Amino acid sequence: MNIPKKALLTFLCFYLTVFIAGCGNSQSSESKNVKSGIAGSQKISGTISVSGILDAEQSAAVSSQLTGTVTTLNIKEGQAVRKGEVLLSLDKRDLSLQLQLAQSNYRKSVEAVNQAKISYDDAQKAYNRYQELYQTGSVSQQDYEQITSKLNLAKSQYETAQGSGLDAAQNSIQTIENNLDKADLKSPLDGVIASCNVTPGESVTTGTPIVSLVSEQNLILNGNISESMVNYLKVGQKVDIITDSVPGTTYSGTIIFISPVSVSTGQFFPVKIKVENANHTLRIGMTGSASIKYEINAPLAVPNTSLFQQNGSDYVYLIKDGKAVRTPLKLGLAGDAYTVVISGLNPEEQIIVSEPLNILDGDSVTISQ
């Protein structure tokens, strides 16, 4: 029997449509076994990672407080030094001569004071004798006034010798001794010489940086934390730091600063972490990564196993009347096992917390025990 081609095509299309529809109805009517959970409050823990560059906790630029010529250089770049150690010295010959002269002047001032004291004591004794004689009428008014004038003069000379002359001599010695101390440039911290810009015989001027030092005992990891995470960090919090430059080693650190102001390039807040570097294996300029643990009490959270994502949108499946109902969410902080729900879900709502991954909106579901 010959069947027209057009009729045959019509029949095949009808048959396929019925077959596909039947298959679809069979799939949607099949119930899928799922595990369920209840959305609610949850303690959430996790780890925040902060990466950054290691910098010196302490650094210093040493400059001279005097103008002079370098006579002794005790350091070289890369050398470790202790606080108070003499790095270099300036020519002290002129200062030493000045000190000798000032000390000589001081001795003369002391001698002048001693001599003035002797004269004053003698004048006081003479006055005491004349005063007794004057009271008995044994000396004249004129003689008594003369001896009184001598006493006043001796007293004035003694006080003058005690005052400005002696003080000036002492101040001069102190100033020169201070300058002699300044001629030895000392390290202000325990550290390493990063650079030295002079050699013996060179002249230096006041205020010009000569030596730079950095401390490697403790370093600072400078990083940034996003605005969504910044409130989960605390100053004083302990952290672990790793670096690709020293693989297999974990360093201890402490958060010492969290900026109250975000950086201008985006919604990130600068963070400083003090890193213990007792064995000096870390170097300034290395990249490090800090793992910061946190734990919060979230008023509404869901298990991470309940979350799905499509085209950048997050959602879960509610269980309503035996059906899976796709429900979009706005999520917050993601922990190791749970994620904070900001909106889209109410407490005590029942959700699917496990596979199958091929579940669809409207599928019939059976809660497995």
UniProtKB/TrEMBL annotation:
Transmembrane segments: none
Residue span, CzcB-like barrel-sandwich hybrid domain: 59-211
This protein's UniProt keywords: Signal
Highest rank taxon of the organism: Bacteria
Keyword Signal among record annotations: yes
Signal peptide feature range: 1-21
Gene Ontology MF annotations: efflux transmembrane transporter activity
Database matches in PROSITE patterns: PROKAR_LIPOPROTEIN (PS51257)
Domain (YknX-like C-terminal permuted SH3-like) ranges: 300-367
SUPFAM superfamilies per the UniProt record, alphabetical: HlyD-like secretion proteins
NCBIfam families according to UniProt: RND_mfp (TIGR01730)
Name by which UniProt lists this protein: Efflux transporter, RND family, MFP subunit
Annotated source species: Syntrophobotulus glycolicus (strain DSM 8271 / FlGlyR)
